[in-house]
Design a protein that fits this description.
Chain lengths: 302, 373
């Protein structure tokens, strides 16, 4: 008994083993907090995606086949769907930047408390249902909708303009829904720019416009890149808004997948589309990461 | 002839005086600056010293043009600057946070003001190299800002502030983020740099020791008003009111009474005979702790020395000096500070020990008791 204790504990360094095991125990407890999330990811992402990935390589006869991918290359309609998807995503992102940058700048210039209030205005739509907001746009934009009625009675144009069931309507709706995803990270990075920084620029001789382009804009870029990427990636897989406001004329990948499942009940073809979109998204994120120091943008490092 | 501050024709930096008159800035109903008049002489190192919230930074920001005062005049030499936007004032400034641009290298940061002024590439490179050499960072031009230590950032901020040869240099607590040793070293370096550049410098600090170390003159500011503007020596030895006396250096205050002939007494000690007093005002004796000395068995000349007898209440050994709080009456204490040596019996003073403290009459400082701030 006595010798065993002497072997474990060096008499010169008291409690060494106990302290070490206490440290390990703490680390394990910390790790266990992540377990539910980890299991969830396995159950609802890794397994289904893996299954769809597998399905995409199974032909109509139940054998391994590349026919779904071959079709995607052979039929022009598929290429058009991808072009539309990227077109809508890029244009929506640009629209969000155009609207969101000045908005975020305005918020960042306000005193903190006032900014919090205005931020509510940005977030409030965020808390209402996506579907409700999309149909609200339909009400506003349709042929006999509020916007057309108002413009005609005000004499802005004569006959109703087609604002919905086309690209215009889709972009308006998408930009509105995506805006907070751009404004939030952008606002965050703008808040981090110290007022002293702008004072220093002015003090060194930069006019307000020079200060903005040489100091403020580069320093806000990380937030803008992060926000733009979030918006862009979300747009790529977006379904509800293009389906409702596009009226069947703006066919994006997600819409096409639904169509294939509803019309042909072809899981393989639908999966193949999903796989291609996933791979394309990963490639884009990888390239963006290479060129734009994505980790810094997404994790808020300077 | 009015010399315009934007004038860059002279290659050597020459200093400009700053004339401030009636400068007033209110935040709500509180005066950050209350009718401030201040003359900063050409080429001098003037420190704005005051507690936080005293208005010292507001005053500096007004000179730089970062805030809009409610009224007043700020002239650089003969040119009124109060309406001039900050980017046309041509003053250098070192910020408390340094405000270095993180997306630029050290050299790009320093070249920034030169590029804005359309300086040629060759001259820019030369002047950046010179500025880096002046702050002893010649090898670090290509470094990123995040690769620098606090002291190095401080030097880069300094180089960026003087590289375009401004004739006025402003510094807002530039050393407050550094540790004590480095801070003391930088104080000396800044002083040398000021001598080298000869530029009018306005320096803001709340650290009275820093102000005493570096300044040609100190402007003590409190509640948006200047309390006293004078040399460090005069500020320390002849404070005009209780606030200045309290804020700079250590001190003990003893209330004085006046007899019919105008002589001032503390209890039964005659303090001053010829001090110009006004009726209706109370006065106090200001005692600097290090001006006191211990009196042993020797007899002292009462014409030259005032003697206070009392008991040690607290004793603290602090290395190069020791500090004893001594009660000289039921209600009054004197702080006593003295140099230590290894053999001295003084550093074994104990609470309760009786002690006699002497003060030379030439070290007597009388100030108005009610500070008119």
């Amino acid at each position: 008994m006595n010798t065993a204790i002497e072997n474990e504990v060096d008499p010169g360094l008291p409690n060494e083993n106990q302290l070490r095991s206490q440290g390990i125990r703490e680390q394990r407890m910390l790790l266990s907090l992540a377990t539910p999330a980890f299991l969830m990811i396995v159950a609802i992402i890794l397994i289904p995606v893996g299954w769809l990935f597998y399905l995409s390589f199974i032909g109509g006869d139940g054998q391994f086949s590349l026919e779904h991918y071959r079709k995607m290359i052979e039929y022009k309609s598929y290429a058009r769907v991808f072009v539309t998807t990227f077109q809508v995503s890029i244009l929506t992102t640009l629209l969000c930047i155009l609207i969101g940058y000045p908005l975020a700048y305005f918020l960042a210039m306000l005193p903190q408390r006032l900014a919090g209030f205005f931020m509510l205005a940005v977030l409030l739509p965020f808390w209402t249902s996506l579907l409700v907001r999309t149909y609200a746009w339909l009400v506003l934009l349709q042929k006999n909708g509020i916007l057309n009625d108002f413009a005609i009675s005000a004499g802005l144009w004569e006959t109703p303009i087609k604002l919905v069931h086309n690209m215009t309507g889709t972009l308006i709706g998408m930009a509105h829904i995506m805006l907070p995803f751009l404004v939030l990270p952008l606002y965050g990075s703008m808040r981090k720019i110290e007022r002293d920084m702008m004072h220093a620029a002015a003090n060194l001789g930069a006019s307000p416009i020079q200060s903005f382009w040489k100091i403020y804009f580069p320093l806000s870029l990380s937030g803008m890149v992060a926000g733009s990427l979030i918006v862009f990636v979300l747009c790529l897989g977006f379904y509800v808004t293009p389906a409702v406001l596009g009226g069947g004329r703006v066919v994006m990948v997600a819409t096409q997948i639904t169509a294939i499942l509803e019309n042909q009940f072809n899981w393989g073809a639908a999966s193949a589309l999903g796989v291609v979109l996933l791979v394309a998204t990963i490639v884009i994120l990888y390239l963006a990461g290479r060129f734009l120091k994505l980790d810094a943008a997404l994790f808020g490092k300077h | 002839m009015a010399s315009h501050p934007d004038d860059q024709s002279s290659t050597k930096a020459s200093a400009l005086p700053i004339h401030i008159q009636g400068l007033t800035k209110k935040y709500g109903r509180m005066y950050a600056l209350n009718n401030v008049d201040l003359e900063v002489r050409s080429g001098e190192f003037l420190t704005l010293l005051g507690p936080s919230g005293s208005g010292k930074t507001t005053l500096l920001m007004a000179i730089a043009g970062f805030n809009r005062p409610d009224a007043g005049s700020i002239r650089f030499a003969d040119t009124e600057m109060i309406l001039t936007p900050p980017h046309r004032r041509n003053v250098g400034m070192v910020f408390q946070s340094y405000a270095l641009f993180p997306h630029m290298t050290v050299a790009e940061n320093i070249a920034f003001p030169l590029k804005l002024r359309g300086t040629g590439a060759e001259e820019t490179a030369q002047r950046v190299a010179d500025a880096l050499a002046t702050v002893q960072l010649s090898d670090l031009g290509e470094r990123g800002i995040d690769q620098l230590s606090g002291g190095q950032r401080q030097r880069v901020a300094l180089a960026r502030a003087f590289v375009f040869r401004p004739r006025i240099l402003l510094m807002d607590e530039p050393l407050s983020a550094l540790d004590k040793k480095l801070r003391e070293q930088m104080q000396i370096e800044l002083k040398h740099l000021h001598e080298q550049l000869g530029v009018t410098t306005v320096y803001v600090t709340h650290d009275q020791r820093e102000a005493l170390t570096m300044s040609d003159r100190i402007a003590v500011i409190n509640d948006g008003k200047l309390a006293q503007v004078d040399t460090p020596h005069a500020i320390y030895n002849r404070p005009v009111n209780r606030f200045v006396a309290d804020f700079i250096g250590e001190s003990s205050m003893l209330p004085l009474t006046r007899d019919d002939t105008g002589k001032l007494y503390f209890e039964d000690h005659l303090i001053a005979t010829d001090y110009q007093t006004e009726t209706g005002k109370d006065y106090a004796l200001l005692v600097r702790p290090e001006r006191l000395f211990m009196i042993g068995d020797e007899t002292v000349d009462a014409d030259k020395t005032i003697t206070f007898s009392g008991k040690v209440r607290e004793f603290v050994f602090q290395g190069e000096t020791a500090f004893a709080l001594t009660s000289i009456s039921d209600t009054h204490d004197l702080s006593f500070r003295f140099g230590t040596d290894s053999s001295s019996s003084q550093d074994s003073m104990r609470p309760g020990d009786p002690v006699s403290l002497g003060l030379n009459r030439q070290d007597v400082i009388v100030i108005p008791q009610t500070s008119d701030q």
